[in-house]
Amino acid sequence: MRLAVYTGASLGADPRFARAAHDFAGELARQGVGIVYGGGHVGLMGVVADAALAAGGEVIGVMPRSLVDDETAHTGLTELRVVGSMHQRKAQMAELADGFVALPGGLGTLEEIFEAWTWIQVGVHAKPVGFLDVAGYWRPLLDAVASMSAAGLVRPQYRDAAVVAEDAGELLARFAAWQPPRRRWDPAGQRT
């Protein structure tokens, strides 16, 4: 099993983010879960890669050539796949992953995890999506999604498809039991 891990290229202001990223990645490695991530050596991304590698885990980085050329690529990974664009990066990560997890991060993390979450709704994949909620980091965002659902713009089954956990053990247990919701449109074109 491999998980795509999305997180920041910065460490953030709260030291709990780096500790949680370290502990999460180390636990994934100890449980034999590989990591696919953006390939960087900086910020929380670097913490994830270094912790998983130190625990003997598999870490595959996927990075556009432009970022490799900027010298942000991690040089000690199990494998670094160099692609042409950010779109190719996301597609390659999705292909390699059996699920998707967002740790604290910024706009790129949001964009990546929301795309993976949306893909459940439209039937692009049937893989679990989750948020590692470190120190309540994701709570305001998840509250906003709940508000969107209450307003009738996000169906409850898609809102509830995202797993929210505080540690790797809880997240992996919930991923193991996860069942995808029915996609929004069935093959005959009917709304569900």
Explain what the structure shows:
This protein is α/β, with parallel strands linked by helices. Helix content is 45%, strand content 16%. It is built from eight helices and seven strands; from the N terminus they run E-H-E-H-E-H-E-H-E-H-E-H-H-E-H. A seven-stranded parallel beta sheet has the order 4-3-2-1-5-6-7, with helices on both faces. Helix 1 packs parallel to helix 2. It is globular. The protein starts with a strand and ends in a 15-residue tail after the last helix. The mean pLDDT is 94.
In short:
With 192 residues, this protein is α/β, with parallel strands linked by helices.
Spell the H/E element sequence.
Answer: EHEHEHEHEHEHHEH
Q: Which structural class best describes the helix and strand composition? A: alpha/beta
Helix content: 40-55%
Mean pLDDT equals: 94
Spatial arrangement of strands, main beta sheet: 4-3-2-1-5-6-7
Radius of gyration: 16 Å
Uncertain ranges = none
Helical run tally: 8
Query: Which geometry do the CA atoms define?
Result: globular
N-to-C span? 30 Å
Chain-wise SSE layout:
Elements: E1 2-6, H1 15-30, E2 34-37, H2 43-54, E3 59-64, H3 65-69, E4 79-83, H4 86-96, E5 100-102, H5 107-122, E6 129-132, H6 139-150, H7 156-159, E7 162-165, H8 168-177
Parallel strand pairs: 1-2, 1-5, 2-3, 3-4, 5-6, 6-7
Helix pairs in contact: 1-2
Summary tags:
192 residues, single chain, alpha/beta, 7-stranded parallel beta sheet, 8 helices, 7 strands
